[in-house]
Amino acid sequence: MSVLDALWEDRDVRFDVSSLQMKTRPGEVLIDCLDSIEDTKGNNGDRGRLLVTNLRIIWHSLPLPRVNLSIGYNCILNITTRTANSKLRGQTEALYILTKCNSTRFEFIFTNLVPGSPRLFTSVIAVHRAYETSKMYRDFKLRSALIQNKQLRLLPQEHVYDKISGVWNLSSDQSGGYVLGFKIDPVEKLRESVKEINSLHKVYSASPIFGVDYEMEEKPQPLEALTVEQIQDDVEIDSDDHTDAFVAYFADGNKQQDREPVFSEELGLAIEKLKDGFTLQGLWEVMS
Predict the structure, then answer these.
(1) How far apart are CA 284 and CA 241, in angstroms?
(2) pLDDT tens, position by position, 58-115
(3) Cβ atoms < 10 Å from Cβ of 163
(4) CA–CA separation, 135 and 139 (whole Å)
(5) What is the Cα–Cα distance from 100 to 85, expressed in whole angstroms?
(6) Cα distance between residue 253 and residue 249, in whole Å
(7) Mean pLDDT split into 10-residue runs, the chain, 288 residues
(8) 62: number of CA atoms within 13 Å, CB side?
(9) How far apart are CA 114 and CA 81, in angstroms?
(10) CA torsion sign, 118 to 97 to 80 to 53?
């Protein structure tokens, strides 16, 4: 399977990923590293490290690296700065990131524990903007403005290796997807073209260009040198409980008013009705 077939880093939001998934994939570049960042939404009071790559944002707890986040840029809906209540900084300006992944919205809040430093805001916002303006490198486009003055408009770092005349476009919509098809005559020329395309794809997959062009003045160390190897605890983890780790990040952005009060037998008092799929036990475990 091609390296690019398994690309998920920029298109997914994942919680508590393995050390292998925290490593950079071919073509992924570490752009910035901030060592004193708090995950104020889900791990308030924990000092962590924020890694900014050309595909995603990675945060992990410094005392417990297996507690981590991987936020793909393609999932980000909005980035803003607002005041947040940090256990380590108190009331302070923080970075709010609203995301959507598989129809679920998550909100993340990151606080820079270094007073007076705007680097958290400038790095994340600038790199995300560079990602948004370079989608032609990563997305499948139809009927885009590729030709200007009868010449192909090349992207930076893009090169033309061959030109083949007399090619029929047989592409069409099929089974809810789009199938690309081309007819080249004679058959010998078709075989040569397929061989050349496969060869170029293999070379590209080994070191793909994702188009996010941004560099810091001070280049960080390689990601492998910054991420701590996760130690396997000699305990059995209940997988059902572990899935509640992301509950703290749910974004309730569409909430216009409080939900109706209901009586909780567990607490012995009236509480706001929980959203579907939530339990008091799960919420307590997230807070503890």
Answers:
(1) 11
(2) 999 999 999 999 999 999 999 999 999 999 999 999 999 999 999 899 999 999 999 8
(3) 7
(4) 6
(5) 24
(6) 12
(7) 70 94 94 94 94 97 94 97 92 95 93 91 95 93 84 92 93 84 94 96 93 81 60 45 65 59 76 66 55
(8) 11
(9) 16
(10) positive
- 154-177 per-position pLDDT tens digit: 999 999 999 999 999 998 887 778
DSSP the chain: --GGGG--TTS-EEES--HHHHSPPTT--EEEEEEEEEETTTSTT-EEEEEEESSEEEEEESS-TTSEEEEEGGGEEEEEEEEEEETTTEEEEEEEEEEEETTEEEEEEEEE-STT--HHHHHHHHHHHHHHTTGGGTS--SS-S-EETTEE-PPTT--------S-EE--EEETTEEE--EE-SSHHHHHHHHHHHHHHHHHHHHS---------SSPPPPHHHHSPPPP--SS---HHHHGGGGGGGB--TT--SPPPEEEETTTTEEEEPPPTT--HHHHHHHH-
Structure tokens at 121: 């805001």
Token pair, residue 176, equals 């809810």
169-179 in b/e form (b: 16+ CB < 10 A) is eeeeeeeeeee
Q: Which residue from 286, 283, 263 is spatially nearest to 273, judged by alpha carbons?
A: 263
Instruction: Tell me the two tokens of residue 116.
Output: 């007076």
Query: What are the structure tokens assigned to 103, written together?
Result: 């129809």
Q: Map tokens 């033309």 to a residue.
A: 160
Q: Report the 10 Å Cβ neighbour count for 56.
A: 26
Sorted by sequence, the CB contacts under 8 Å of residue 81 that are 6+ apart come out as: 93, 94, 95, 96, 121
